[in-house]
Amino acid sequence: MTEKLEIICPDTEDEWDEWTGVPVATLFQETGLTPGASEVVFTGADGYYKQLPLEFVLQNHIFLAYQMNGQALPRDRGYPLRLVVPGNDGADWPRWIVKIEVKPALTAFSNSSGIIRQLSRNIPPPVADSVPACW
């Protein structure tokens, strides 16, 4: 999916970019969810995480971006994956996603999580002063 969205960052000029990625709902359709699942936690390589209600994720076009403006996602923008949450501040779009957890349980997602972790080994640790909080 590709969407042109405004990323809103406090103390920074807002900008519109075209984000391309895979809807999280599609991942969950492919992997399956166990009954009782109610929350999703997305964690970046920098330790920042975003916890969202599962229902919100499934109904609001939340997706994992791997491209921005038709090109591979730059490292400072979250390579290899960035969570895109339309309508939320950029600070709510975690970068460098390496782990996805569905609580209380998710069926057969551990292999995909392992692949994301393997990819994340190529991500240099962010330097707090060099990368804006939500950019």
Overall shape: it is globular
How would you characterize the largest beta sheet? 5 strands, antiparallel
Helix content: 10-25%
Question: How many DSSP H or I helices?
Answer: 3
Mean pLDDT across every amino acid position: 80
Cα Rg: 14 Å
Number of strands: 8
Order of helices and strands: EEHEEHEEEEH
As residue ranges, the low-confidence spans are 105-115
For the record, give the distance between the C-alpha atoms at the N and C termini, rounded to a whole number: 21 Å
Strand percentage, roughly?
A: 25-35%
Structural class: alpha+beta
Structure, explained:
With 135 residues, the protein is of the alpha+beta class. It is 19% helix and 33% strand. It is built from 3 helices and 8 strands; from the N terminus they run ββαββαββββα. The strands form 2 sheets. Strands 1, 2, 5, 6 and 7 form a 5-stranded antiparallel sheet that branches. It has a 3-stranded antiparallel sheet with strand order 4-3-8. It is globular. The model is unreliable at 105-115 (pLDDT under 50).
